[in-house]
Amino acid sequence: MLPTDLIDRAYRGDCTKEDAALLATAPPTELFRLADELRVEAVGDVVSYIPNRNINFTNRCIGTCRFCAFKDPDGYRLGISEILTKVDEAVSLGATEICIQGGLLPDMHLTNYCEILESVKSDFPAIHLHAYSPMEVWYAAGGGRGEGGGGSEDRDCAGAGVRDTLAALKKAGLDTMPGTAAEILVDDVRTKICPDKLNTAQWIEVVGAAHSLGIRTTATIMYGHIETVRDRIDHLFLIRNLQDETHGFTEFVPLSFMPYNNELGEGMLAGGNYGNTGIDDLRMHALARIVLHNRIPNIQASWVKLGKKLAQYALHCGANDLGGTLMEEKISKSAGSTSGEYMPPSEFDWIIENAGRIPVVRDTIYSH
Ligand code: SF4
Q1: What is the Cα–Cα distance from 260 to 244, expressed in whole angstroms?
Q2: What is the model's pLDDT at position 160?
Q3: What domain range is 198 assigned to?
């Protein structure tokens, strides 16, 4: 049985790191029940999803992230007309959001990032542009352009640089940003898994500046590699504290680490570690619901990462959103996901109704 004072704090949105550590080792059914009760209090029985499309404009990248299975030195780079064709296809299928991200290219500068947004908005003014990770924004601001994709010595973007970059992107049509590139927001972990990526303080700087400019973001965690339970908890509380300051996060998305086709995962597999089990995944979603209660009402279960069946069960462990229809999903697929690249709205409805919930189509910022 979970202590009653812990449950009281959880309902108030006041649970402590010590509470979270206890919850992380609690019997799964007790953890899931508490998360499910808090989900009911936060959002009721509605489960949402969004008709959207991912467009990865390139899979080439100078980055050195050890968990990445996406980058390909012989890969592609889409031109503006190819991007517009993909947007047109998505719009004709009812997409309301286009999510644009890509690898880091030496000849990709702020003007190029802006050009993509301006071109899409010019032809499709009603589409919501959810684009560019905090790492891409940092890169567009001039950070991470040294040998190997960066290094702390060349990543010292002044705050004004990040802010001006975000303002330019917003002017070009950026509506919201994915809160990716977060991985684990603990620098001891980041230096081991993505040493050339922006560090924790820089991620906070970019996301905090975005929020201050009215650019809302998601928040993510990539879990299930070398991080400890304490690292996951520190990450959740960092997101919680930032939300208290900015109120800019729309949702929290746990991203289960996929160990295939990447250096970090290959080391794990060689040691007999196959990554997250289903119980690990459900625990992460439940813990996020409890720690973020009264701050971030939406916890997404990614059907691409979890598979459709486990994502459905996550709806009973704190999650209330199943993400997007996607149409095109390359990043998880390259790391071993077999869940597919597109799920039609009718299948979302079927999964959600068979979980005993009420399906609803949402927009990016959960305004409906
Ligand atoms: S995770 Fe992103 S920045 Fe890192 S290597 Fe892969 S594509 Fe590049």
Answers
A1: 36
A2: 56
A3: 4-361
